[in-house]
Amino acid sequence: MRAGSGSQQFDRPFVVDSSAYETAFTVRATPLEEQLAATVAWWRERLRGPAGR
Questions:
Q1: What is the DSSP string of the chain?
Q2: Dihedrals φ, ψ of 41, to 5°?
Q3: Residue 29 in contact with residue 18, Cβ under 8 Å?
Q4: Which of 21, 10, 41, 37 is nearest to 1 (CA)?
Q5: How far apart are the C-alpha atoms of 53 and 23, rounded to whole Å?
Q6: Could you give the CA distance from residue 28 to residue 17 in angstroms, rounded to a whole number?
Q7: Quick one: pLDDT at residue 46?
Q8: What Å distances lie between residue 38 and 23, 33, 34, 35, CA to CA?
Q9: Is pLDDT of 40 > 70?
Q10: Radius of gyration (C-alpha) of the chain in whole angstroms
């Protein structure tokens, strides 16, 4: 693999720890399942087009 190709960035699982954010701002990160559902709903609404079509 040539240097600088970017593949080395993904040689381990990508893990996000939101505990510091949650502690600092007294909020919680949105669970992945909730994020996905909201994104799918958003796209479905856009694909449907303007109301009344």
A1: --TTSSGGGGSS------HHHHHHHT--PPPHHHHHHHHHHHHHHHHH-STT-
A2: -60, -40
A3: yes
A4: 10
A5: 46
A6: 11
A7: 94
A8: 24, 9, 6, 5
A9: yes
A10: 18
Length of the chain: 53
Domain ranges of the chain: 14-48
Six token digits for residue 41: 């709903």
Q: What is the pTM of this model?
A: 0.50
**C-alpha to C-alpha distance for 42 and 20, rounded to whole angstroms:** 29
- The position carrying tokens 């949650």 is 22
Q: Which of 14, 31, 35 minimizes the C-alpha distance to 22? A: 31
